């Protein structure tokens, strides 16, 4: 495996980490209107991700920086062509982060309700648009001979991309609800299990449609890793059903773990369907960006590889330690007994 191919999979790994970790953050935020029946319940839901949401979000920064350094052509075409949706994602993430920090600054009910709505919006928009963006990347977009995106914003809202967007929205929602069930007690815990059961059917339908469409898309392109597309898609489907069944049986930890496997294998499926392209062109296959023509110079990739070998294990170790420290449930009694700003 050459260094350019290695970095394609490192970028994939970073996006896997981002979607697995920030994915359930989005789901927790989206679940707020359904599980936060009073202020204590809302604080209980929000506090499940309070210590970790900002750490989870750093994965997208590392992924973007790695993309810029390892595949500058891909980065330039992606960020110029997808400028508006990526800007909306950025604004939504800012909105969500500000809301987490400011909702407790006043005791006003309207003040808190306003920021709660912003948390929901700041979770829904990225969960949907990240899926739309990756759907377009996998399917291909209008790239000319100069590797410039020449399509408009509305051409990005095509059926396949929208299906992937709806699927990521529903997957992240279910992923977050399973995390709330794992991390809470009392009424919120019971409501989270019921909500996971209600979300099961539409999530399974959307996910199955995405897996099948992605497989046939990759098959039509004669993707060299079609076996991985099929395998990852099958594992994602089985683990999604397993997560739902385990949740219904009250095995919260196992259900959330199965949800992690679902998101992980779904992202692997998308990258396997994309390989060896990084952005296929729908105008002419010869205009497509590939791993070979979009990567940095070998010397740059060598330096980055050594940096990644040192930095990535440290990042993973620190994040693992953080989750271990904050592993306990967020109980209703701990919220009721805490100051109002908690």
TrEMBL record:
UniProt cross-references to PANTHER family, sorted A to Z: CYTOCHROME BD-I UBIQUINOL OXIDASE SUBUNIT 2 (PTHR43141:SF5), CYTOCHROME BD2 SUBUNIT II (PTHR43141)
Membrane topology: Multi-pass membrane protein
InterPro entries: Cyt-d_oxidase_su2
Keywords: Cell membrane, Electron transport, Heme, Iron, Membrane, Metal-binding, Transmembrane, Transmembrane helix, Transport
Pfam families: Cyt_bd_oxida_II
Family: Belongs to the cytochrome ubiquinol oxidase subunit 2 family.
Protein's name in the database: Cytochrome d ubiquinol oxidase subunit II
Gene: cydB
Subcellular location: Cell membrane
Organism ancestry: Bacteria, Bacillati, Actinomycetota, Actinomycetes, Micrococcales
Ranges annotated as spanning the membrane: 6-24, 74-98, 119-140, 160-183, 195-218, 224-248, 255-279, 299-326
Record's keyword annotation contains Cell membrane: yes
């Amino acid at each position: 495996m050459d260094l350019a191919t290695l970095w394609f999979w490192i970028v994939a790994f970073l996006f896997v980490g981002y979607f697995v970790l920030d994915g359930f953050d989005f789901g927790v935020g989206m679940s707020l209107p359904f599980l936060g029946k009073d202020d204590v319940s809302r604080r209980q839901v929000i506090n499940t991700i309070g210590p970790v949401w900002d750490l989870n979000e750093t994965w997208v920064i590392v992924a973007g920086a790695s993309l810029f350094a390892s595949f500058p052509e891909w980065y330039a075409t992606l960020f110029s062509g997808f400028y508006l949706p990526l800007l909306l994602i950025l604004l939504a993430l800012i909105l969500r982060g500000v809301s987490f920090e400011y909702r407790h600054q006043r005791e006003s009910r309207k003040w808190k309700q306003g920021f709660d709505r912003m948390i929901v919006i700041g979770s829904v928009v990225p969960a949907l648009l990240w899926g739309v963006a990756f759907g377009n990347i996998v399917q291909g977009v209008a790239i000319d001979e100069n590797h410039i995106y020449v399509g408009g914003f509305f051409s990005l809202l095509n059926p396949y991309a929208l299906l992937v967007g709806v699927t990521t929205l529903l997957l992240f929602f279910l992923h977050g609800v399973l995390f709330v069930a794992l991390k809470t007690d009392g009424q919120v815990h019971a409501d989270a299990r019921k909500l996971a059961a209600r979300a099961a059917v539409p999530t399974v339908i959307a996910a199955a449609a995405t897996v099948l469409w992605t497989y046939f898309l990759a098959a039509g392109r004669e993707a060299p890793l079609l076996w991985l597309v099929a395998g990852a898609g099958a594992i994602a489907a089985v683990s999604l059903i397993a997560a739902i069944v385990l949740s219904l049986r009250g095995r919260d930890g196992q259900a959330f773990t199965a949800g992690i496997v679902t998101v992980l294998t779904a992202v692997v499926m998308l990258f396997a369907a994309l390989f060896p392209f990084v952005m296929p062109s729908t105008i002419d296959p010869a205009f497509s960006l590939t791993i070979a023509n979009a990567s940095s110079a070998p010397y740059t990739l060598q330096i980055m590889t050594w940096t990644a070998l040192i930095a990535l294990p440290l990042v993973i170790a620190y994040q693992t330690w953080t989750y271990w420290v904050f592993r306990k449930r967020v109980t209703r009694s701990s919220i009721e007994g805490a100051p109002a700003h908690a």
